[in-house]
Amino acid sequence: MIKHLSFHLCFALIVGLILGPYLSFSYTQIQWLLGIGLSFIFLVYFIVNNFINPRFYFALAGFIAMVIIGIGRSGLAKENLSKNHYTHYIAKENTLILSVKNILKASKNYNKYEVFVHQINSKKANGKLLLNIKKDSLNNRLKIGQFLFTNAKIIAINKPKNPFQFNYKKYLENQNIYAQIYTDFKAVKILKKRKVSIYSLAGDFRKKVVATLISKGLKGEELAVVKALLLGERNQISATLRESYVAAGAVHILAISGLHIGIIMMLIGFVLKPLETFKNGKKIKLILIILSLWIYAIIAGLSPSVIRATTMFTAVSIALFSNRKTDIYNVLALSAFFLLLFNPSYLFNVGFQMSYFAVIAIVALQPKLASLWRPKQKIVTYFWQLFCVSTAAQIGVLPLSLFYFHQFPGLFFLTNMVVIPLLGFILGYGLLIILLASVNILPHFLVEYYQYIIHYLNVFITWVSHQESFLFKNISFSFTLMLLCYLAILSIYYWRTRKTITSIYLTCFAILSLQIVLFYESYTATNSHKFIVFDNYKDPFIAIKRGRGLQLLSKNSNDYILKSYCVGAHIEKVTFFKTQQNIFMINGQKVLIIDANGVFEPLDNVDTVILTKSPKINLQRLIEKLNPQLIIVDNTNYKSFVARWQQTCTQLNIPFYNVSKKGAFIYSF
To answer: What is the pLDDT of residues 587-630, one digit of tens each?
Structure first.
């Protein structure tokens, strides 16, 4: 029962962290929960000693207590529960003192920053905000640690208003960011003082290294990839190149993760190997390896992926030094346990999930795959082992990849067979460049050769990504399917390992459940019909879903919204539907669209009127003439028009639906 105690503790903590967001507790209640959880463990420990099987009862009590601690820790991680959080002091006009915590990837029109609130409206405060500063011709940028003063309106982050759209609000809330500011550089005053911290010092170091690399001739996409590979800064990589890495199945190398930290650990271990000949040399070597890993983690910005990987390989280094038989599952569970205890939001981080599932799959499946064939030649054995590792990792992350990214790179094995052997050399070469750049003795030719290497790496990745027949995209995959896929993988692994009647039953149950859900989702998608007015602020976006087909009533559709909906709703074919005089029938009901022209064919009665592009009409006369049962306004109308129309509908007792406030209008028929 307690053979893998770390695993049980980690699993119980995860259960508590998942339950936490669905339970509402005050700050004081959360503290009581944590106290109860810890006290419960010690209380049961003394009570169960008199039982016949104390281990079982203590393990059960420990599990329950850790679930309670997980629930409490989840609530404690919500910074907006703090009495001094800025959300308690927001006014219509705010004066804010902020400090720049992190530089984020810029959008088309705005530079984005994660900032910390120190003061709001002359009151001390805390909490994180998303700061959006409009780009200007001078390309002004803020630095990490700078203090700012601004009079700005704090804006809530909206929930997704269209079906199957990415929930950006929830994503930011998992990082304790609950609001945002939109402004320009002129409205932000940079204060003289600057907050000196590990983050600001690391940011200055990265800036110095990048400036040196640029002065030595490194530029363009090669510079962007080097910054991502070595310094953890991915915000300069173009969308096109990033899509190429995603399509080739190599996007994981653009984020400093377990693969990078593991290679760096081996490189440092190789360089420090001579220390083992001295007295206490192994101990000194271990300390230097751990110290080097964390210094590199600080330089790379201490992002979640870097902290996760460094913590994991710190545990691995200590386990290897102890010369004991290392149970990798215990090491993984312990690292995950402390990471989640430190920051519960890691649990909902895609990188965290994929990293641990990939490593677990490699440990569990790679030996079984490798045993299928044992080549005699060393070079063949090397590439076969590499193929097995890559395949095992892909099996581990496949359900997650399909759920989050809705695509599968069929040539992942080719990419990994080329990239992974080169990655050790690329990282070693890059670390040497960083070291030389930091002391200003970096020769020009070293940077020039490195640029060639990165250039041809990008060329290879781009070539693989263009083999579109091997890239399976726009795969509809629900959360339920993801869970059942993992259940099927686990049950098959259990059956291959134990080969008992129970394992056969479990495997059959998992596969049958997966097939039932696949059939149900396919049947539902084929037999559902909907009329949708999407939330799109630029152009009208109205569509009719008939089974697996989608008919658009306007060619000016938003590609992002359209793609998200097509993937989520199992759409296989998109066509354009032309209407005469903007009139069409939906399930026997007459629908009229009135656009900016404000012109429509004289009718006796209509069931629904859709107002778009701010038509200049007298709504009261229109209602009296057409007698509609519902008025819908999309997000392309002026707010003043919408307010006036809503008032008219209220007076005439006509249902009014405002898409910009309520989200997409969906009518099933």
So the answer is: 888 999 998 887 777 677 889 999 999 999 999 988 988 899 99
With a cut of 50, list the residues of the chain below it in pLDDT: 1-2
Q: Taking CA 256 as the corner, what is the angle to CA 236 and CA 450, rounded to the nearest 5 degrees?
A: 65
Whole-number Å distance between alpha carbons of 273 and 395: 35
Q: Are the C-beta atoms of 67 and 15 separated by less than 8 Å? A: yes
Q: Which helix (H) or strand (E) holds 141?
A: none
Q: What is the residue type of 41?
A: I
The encoded tokens of residue 203 equal 């940011």
What residues are paired with 182 via a beta bridge?
132
> What would the pLDDT profile of 69-112 be if each residue is shown by its tens digit?
888 888 888 888 888 899 888 887 788 999 998 888 888 889 99
CATH architecture of the domain formed by 86-195: Beta Barrel (2.40)
DSSP string, 380-415: HHHHHHHHHHHHHHHHHHHHHHHHHH--EETTHHHH
Residue 639 has a CB neighbour count (10 Å cut-off) of 11
Alpha-helical runs (H) found in 48-160: 54-76
- So what CATH class is 529-668? alpha beta
Angle at CA of residue 58, ends 54 and 61, nearest 5°: 145
Residue with tokens 């312990």: 334
Distance CA 608, CA 599 (A): 16
Kindly tell me the sign of the dihedral angle through the C-alpha atoms of 628, 630, 631, 635: negative
Q: Which two tokens stand for residue 321?
A: 């030094």
Give pLDDT, residue 1.
39
Q: Percentages helix, strand, coil for the chain, rounded to the nearest 5?
A: 55, 15, 25
**DSSP 8-state secondary structure symbol assigned to residue 604:** S
Look at residue 50 in the predicted model and tell me its pLDDT.
Answer: 59
Rounded Cα gap, residues 98 and 144, in angstroms:
11
For Cα atoms 518, 519, 522, give the angle at the middle one, nearest 5 degrees.
Answer: 85
Amino acid at 566: C
Helix ranges (H only) for 235-322 are: 239-248, 258-271, 281-299, 304-321
Whether this model's pTM surpasses 0.90: no
- Neighbouring C-beta atoms of residue 378, cutoff 10 Å: 7
pLDDT attached to residue 51: 58
Helix 304-321 × helix 328-342 angle, to 10°: 140
C-alpha to C-alpha distance for 10 and 8, rounded to whole angstroms: 5
